[in-house]
Amino acid sequence: MRSAVQSVVVALALAISSVNGAATTTLPASKGAVATNAPIKVSGSFDGGMKKYDRSPAVCQGQSETGEKDAMFILEAGATLSNVIIGAGQAEGVHCKGTCTLNNVWWADVCEDAITLKQSSGTSYINGGGAFKASDKVVQFNGFGTVQIKDFFANDYGKLVRSCGNCKENGKARNVVISGVVAKSGGVLCGINTNYGDTCTITNSCQNSGKSCDRYTGNNSGAEPPKIGSGPDGKYCKATGFTSSC
Questions:
Q1: Is 69 helix (H, G, I), strand (E, B) or coil?
Q2: Which among 35, 40, 37, 38 has a CA at the least distance from the CA of 53?
Q3: Residue 160 clears pLDDT 70, i.e. is over it
Q4: Rounded distance, CA 81 to CA 63, Å?
Q5: What distance, in Å, lies between the first and last C-alpha atoms of the chain?
Q6: pLDDT by residue (tens digit) across 97-123?
Q7: Contact call for residues 104 and 122 (beta carbons, < 8 A)
Q8: What are the structural domains of the chain?
Q9: CA distances (Å), 157 to each of 5, 125, 142, 153, 186, in order?
Q10: Distance of alpha carbon 117 from alpha carbon 94, whole angstroms
């Protein structure tokens, strides 16, 4: 009969195995290159065939605030973007004007933010893919509703996803659902505003410094939101099968 200690060890090993096997952790080789001087607008579905897409001339200005015009892709409500690699010349990555789905989308070098979500409600999906060198956020969640991030890889980043802490439209809840994510050399997987009822649920994921969630008091005045806690609290931030062994 298996002892309690053995059962715990086996369960932990299975959890780590499932985490390490969930996300692809290397940038895929590109199958060509596309350069444009304006964002590519997508309604419906766009499959990039694993080509590398970039802006030329480059519009990246580091962490200086830019805007939608400096994105690589602008997705209309309900659009799906699949199988692309986004280069370093863009500034805003992907802007989703409503709910959107990203399948196997990669950022070779994030400039400001990789993904900006503007949906008023509903659920957006980020399936697979990954982002490198995001000195601030990978996902900027400015809209409302839910984002589900599954089997994603992040390396050298600030936060995987941040619920906007001081947007003037703030006042409703945002929900973040993370599963099968592997994140290395960066900060927390999610930052949320508990005063608005935001939630972050993490399952079977890894952050190699054990950083799961930061909790803030958000505002709509533009002021810097204060951090009020870190880690799972059982209400707003929950983590199951979360490990630092990536």
A1: helix
A2: 35
A3: yes
A4: 25
A5: 30
A6: 999 999 999 999 999 899 999 999 999
A7: no
A8: 10-243 (2.160.20.10)
A9: 35, 20, 19, 11, 5
A10: 9
Amino acid at 221: S
- Sign of the Cα pseudo-torsion (70, 71, 76, 77, in order): negative
DSSP H/E element including 148: strand 145-150
Kindly tell me the burial class for residue 44, based on how many C-beta atoms sit within 10 Å of its own C-beta (0-12, 13-18, 19 or more): exposed
User: Nearest 5°: CA angle at 191, between 173 and 86?
Assistant: 105
Residue listed under structure tokens 């906007």? 164
Which residues, in sequence order, are bridge partners of residue 102?
81, 126
The single-letter code of the amino acid at 25 is T
- How much is the pTM? 0.91
Query: What tokens does 75 get?
Result: 């997705």
Band the pLDDT of 63: cuts 50, 70, 90: low
SS (H, E, C) 78-104: CCEEEEEEECCCCCCCEEECCCCEEEE
Q: How do beta strands 174-179 and 145-150 pair?
A: parallel
What the block records as the tokens of 57 is 């001339």
Q: How many alpha carbons fall within 13 Å on the CB side of residue 177?
A: 10
